[in-house]
Design goal:
- With about 220 residues, the chain is mainly beta.
- About 0% of the residues lie in helices and about 55% in strands.
- It is built from no helices and 18 strands.
- A hairpin with a 5-residue loop joins strand 5 and strand 6.
Length: about 220
Protein backbone atom coordinates (compact mmCIF):
# COMPACT_ATOMS: atom_id res chain seq x y z
CA UNK A 1 0.00 0.00 0.00
CA UNK A 2 1.26 3.47 -0.94
CA UNK A 3 -0.12 5.68 1.82
CA UNK A 4 1.14 9.15 0.90
CA UNK A 5 2.65 11.13 -1.95
CA UNK A 6 3.98 14.67 -2.25
CA UNK A 7 5.33 16.87 -5.02
CA UNK A 8 8.58 18.76 -4.67
CA UNK A 9 7.69 22.50 -4.54
CA UNK A 10 9.41 23.06 -7.88
CA UNK A 11 7.77 20.08 -9.54
CA UNK A 12 9.64 17.34 -11.46
CA UNK A 13 10.14 15.25 -8.29
CA UNK A 14 7.54 13.12 -6.52
CA UNK A 15 8.02 11.37 -3.16
CA UNK A 16 5.92 8.36 -2.14
CA UNK A 17 5.58 6.62 1.23
CA UNK A 18 4.62 2.98 1.52
CA UNK A 19 3.66 0.30 4.01
CA UNK A 20 6.80 -1.60 2.92
CA UNK A 21 8.79 0.86 5.07
CA UNK A 22 10.32 2.68 2.11
CA UNK A 23 10.12 6.20 0.73
CA UNK A 24 10.78 6.54 -2.98
CA UNK A 25 11.74 9.68 -4.90
CA UNK A 26 10.71 9.75 -8.55
CA UNK A 27 11.94 12.15 -11.22
CA UNK A 28 9.80 13.18 -14.15
CA UNK A 29 11.49 12.41 -17.44
CA UNK A 30 10.00 14.38 -20.28
CA UNK A 31 9.22 12.22 -23.26
CA UNK A 32 10.34 12.94 -26.78
CA UNK A 33 7.73 14.35 -29.16
CA UNK A 34 7.30 10.86 -30.60
CA UNK A 35 6.55 9.20 -27.25
CA UNK A 36 3.00 8.63 -26.05
CA UNK A 37 3.57 10.05 -22.56
CA UNK A 38 6.13 11.23 -20.01
CA UNK A 39 7.65 8.79 -17.54
CA UNK A 40 9.04 8.72 -13.99
CA UNK A 41 12.36 7.20 -12.93
CA UNK A 42 13.06 6.18 -9.33
CA UNK A 43 16.19 8.12 -8.34
CA UNK A 44 16.31 7.34 -4.60
CA UNK A 45 15.02 4.86 -2.06
CA UNK A 46 15.02 6.21 1.50
CA UNK A 47 15.49 3.39 3.99
CA UNK A 48 15.31 3.84 7.74
CA UNK A 49 11.78 3.28 8.99
CA UNK A 50 11.23 -0.08 10.67
CA UNK A 51 7.58 -0.31 9.66
CA UNK A 52 4.81 1.32 7.63
CA UNK A 53 5.52 4.88 6.47
CA UNK A 54 2.35 6.93 6.88
CA UNK A 55 3.22 10.34 5.42
CA UNK A 56 5.87 12.17 3.39
CA UNK A 57 6.24 15.93 2.88
CA UNK A 58 8.80 18.26 1.28
CA UNK A 59 9.87 21.44 3.03
CA UNK A 60 8.97 24.72 1.35
CA UNK A 61 12.43 25.12 -0.20
CA UNK A 62 12.68 21.45 -1.16
CA UNK A 63 15.87 21.09 0.90
CA UNK A 64 14.32 18.59 3.31
CA UNK A 65 11.93 15.66 3.26
CA UNK A 66 10.00 14.66 6.38
CA UNK A 67 8.52 11.20 6.91
CA UNK A 68 6.67 9.50 9.75
CA UNK A 69 5.40 6.04 10.49
CA UNK A 70 4.09 3.23 12.57
CA UNK A 71 7.49 2.84 14.22
CA UNK A 72 6.67 6.02 16.24
CA UNK A 73 9.42 8.03 14.55
CA UNK A 74 9.73 11.21 12.52
CA UNK A 75 12.63 11.34 10.06
CA UNK A 76 14.11 14.47 8.52
CA UNK A 77 16.08 13.79 5.34
CA UNK A 78 18.43 16.33 3.79
CA UNK A 79 18.02 16.55 0.03
CA UNK A 80 21.10 17.50 -1.97
CA UNK A 81 20.62 17.06 -5.70
CA UNK A 82 19.78 13.34 -5.96
CA UNK A 83 21.40 12.42 -2.65
CA UNK A 84 19.26 11.98 0.47
CA UNK A 85 20.82 11.66 3.91
CA UNK A 86 19.19 11.31 7.32
CA UNK A 87 19.51 14.63 9.15
CA UNK A 88 17.66 13.52 12.27
CA UNK A 89 15.38 10.85 13.72
CA UNK A 90 12.92 11.93 16.43
CA UNK A 91 11.49 9.38 18.86
CA UNK A 92 9.25 11.79 20.74
CA UNK A 93 5.85 10.16 20.14
CA UNK A 94 4.74 7.11 22.09
CA UNK A 95 2.46 5.75 19.36
CA UNK A 96 2.10 5.71 15.54
CA UNK A 97 2.78 9.02 13.84
CA UNK A 98 0.07 9.74 11.29
CA UNK A 99 0.99 13.01 9.62
CA UNK A 100 3.77 15.57 9.19
CA UNK A 101 3.64 19.14 7.87
CA UNK A 102 6.26 21.84 7.33
CA UNK A 103 5.84 25.45 8.35
CA UNK A 104 5.01 27.27 5.07
CA UNK A 105 7.51 30.09 5.54
CA UNK A 106 10.53 28.37 7.05
CA UNK A 107 12.50 25.14 6.74
CA UNK A 108 13.42 24.93 10.42
CA UNK A 109 9.95 24.17 11.83
CA UNK A 110 8.13 20.87 11.41
CA UNK A 111 4.95 19.48 13.00
CA UNK A 112 3.66 15.94 13.48
CA UNK A 113 0.37 14.36 14.55
CA UNK A 114 0.10 11.05 16.34
CA UNK A 115 -2.00 8.21 17.69
CA UNK A 116 -0.81 9.32 21.15
CA UNK A 117 -3.31 12.25 20.94
CA UNK A 118 -0.64 14.95 20.65
CA UNK A 119 1.02 17.23 18.12
CA UNK A 120 4.78 17.79 18.29
CA UNK A 121 6.68 20.83 17.01
CA UNK A 122 10.31 20.31 15.98
CA UNK A 123 12.97 22.91 15.28
CA UNK A 124 16.38 22.76 13.69
CA UNK A 125 19.15 22.85 16.30
CA UNK A 126 22.51 23.14 14.60
CA UNK A 127 23.16 19.90 12.76
CA UNK A 128 20.28 18.13 14.52
CA UNK A 129 16.58 18.55 15.26
CA UNK A 130 14.77 18.62 18.58
CA UNK A 131 11.24 18.73 19.99
CA UNK A 132 10.36 22.32 20.81
CA UNK A 133 6.74 21.94 21.98
CA UNK A 134 3.94 19.45 22.54
CA UNK A 135 0.38 20.51 21.78
CA UNK A 136 -2.13 18.54 23.84
CA UNK A 137 -5.80 19.30 23.31
CA UNK A 138 -7.38 16.30 21.65
CA UNK A 139 -8.67 13.29 23.57
CA UNK A 140 -7.85 10.70 20.90
CA UNK A 141 -5.78 10.12 17.75
CA UNK A 142 -4.75 13.28 15.90
CA UNK A 143 -5.02 12.31 12.24
CA UNK A 144 -3.99 15.43 10.37
CA UNK A 145 -2.79 19.01 10.71
CA UNK A 146 -2.33 22.02 8.45
CA UNK A 147 -0.69 25.44 8.68
CA UNK A 148 -2.21 28.69 7.49
CA UNK A 149 -0.46 30.32 4.53
CA UNK A 150 1.64 32.57 6.78
CA UNK A 151 2.24 29.99 9.51
CA UNK A 152 0.50 32.11 12.13
CA UNK A 153 -2.20 29.48 12.48
CA UNK A 154 -2.22 25.70 12.84
CA UNK A 155 -5.31 23.51 12.68
CA UNK A 156 -5.61 19.90 13.85
CA UNK A 157 -8.33 17.26 13.57
CA UNK A 158 -8.83 14.04 15.45
CA UNK A 159 -10.68 10.86 16.24
CA UNK A 160 -12.59 12.81 18.91
CA UNK A 161 -14.57 14.56 16.12
CA UNK A 162 -13.11 17.95 17.00
CA UNK A 163 -11.07 20.58 15.18
CA UNK A 164 -8.67 22.77 17.16
CA UNK A 165 -7.20 26.06 16.00
CA UNK A 166 -3.80 27.04 17.38
CA UNK A 167 -2.26 30.52 17.04
CA UNK A 168 1.38 31.54 17.10
CA UNK A 169 1.88 34.03 19.94
CA UNK A 170 5.66 34.30 19.78
CA UNK A 171 5.54 37.96 18.65
CA UNK A 172 9.23 37.71 17.97
CA UNK A 173 9.46 38.24 14.25
CA UNK A 174 10.74 35.82 11.66
CA UNK A 175 13.78 34.77 13.71
CA UNK A 176 11.78 33.63 16.75
CA UNK A 177 10.51 30.11 17.13
CA UNK A 178 6.71 29.95 16.91
CA UNK A 179 4.74 29.39 20.10
CA UNK A 180 1.35 27.88 19.33
CA UNK A 181 -1.43 28.15 21.90
CA UNK A 182 -4.99 26.94 21.66
CA UNK A 183 -7.15 29.72 20.25
CA UNK A 184 -10.46 28.02 19.44
CA UNK A 185 -12.11 24.64 18.96
CA UNK A 186 -15.12 23.19 17.20
CA UNK A 187 -16.50 19.98 18.72
CA UNK A 188 -18.67 17.35 17.05
CA UNK A 189 -17.97 18.85 13.64
CA UNK A 190 -18.55 15.38 12.22
CA UNK A 191 -20.42 12.42 13.66
CA UNK A 192 -17.42 10.16 13.18
CA UNK A 193 -13.61 10.66 13.31
CA UNK A 194 -12.11 13.50 11.26
CA UNK A 195 -9.29 12.16 9.12
CA UNK A 196 -8.23 15.13 7.02
CA UNK A 197 -7.98 18.90 7.28
CA UNK A 198 -6.83 21.44 4.69
CA UNK A 199 -6.29 25.20 4.93
CA UNK A 200 -7.06 27.26 1.82
CA UNK A 201 -3.90 29.29 1.20
CA UNK A 202 -5.40 31.32 -1.63
CA UNK A 203 -7.26 33.53 0.84
CA UNK A 204 -4.32 34.43 3.07
CA UNK A 205 -3.81 33.64 6.73
CA UNK A 206 -7.50 33.44 7.61
CA UNK A 207 -8.68 31.43 4.64
CA UNK A 208 -11.26 28.67 4.69
CA UNK A 209 -10.58 25.38 6.47
CA UNK A 210 -12.04 22.15 5.07
CA UNK A 211 -12.36 18.83 6.90
CA UNK A 212 -13.10 15.28 5.81
CA UNK A 213 -14.53 12.65 8.15
CA UNK A 214 -15.64 9.07 8.38
CA UNK A 215 -19.31 10.08 8.24
CA UNK A 216 -19.18 10.44 4.43
Amino acid sequence: TVRSCAWHPAGELLATASFDGLVMVWKLERASPEAAHDDFDCIASLEGHENEVKCVRWSTSGSYVATCGRDKTVFVWEADDELYEVASVMHSHTQDVKHVAWHPARDDVLASASYDDTVKLYVSDGDDWRVDATLAGHSSTVWCLAFSSDGAGLVTCADDRSVILWRDESQGGSAAMPRYVRADAAVDVHTRPIFSVSWDHSRGGDGLIATGGGDD
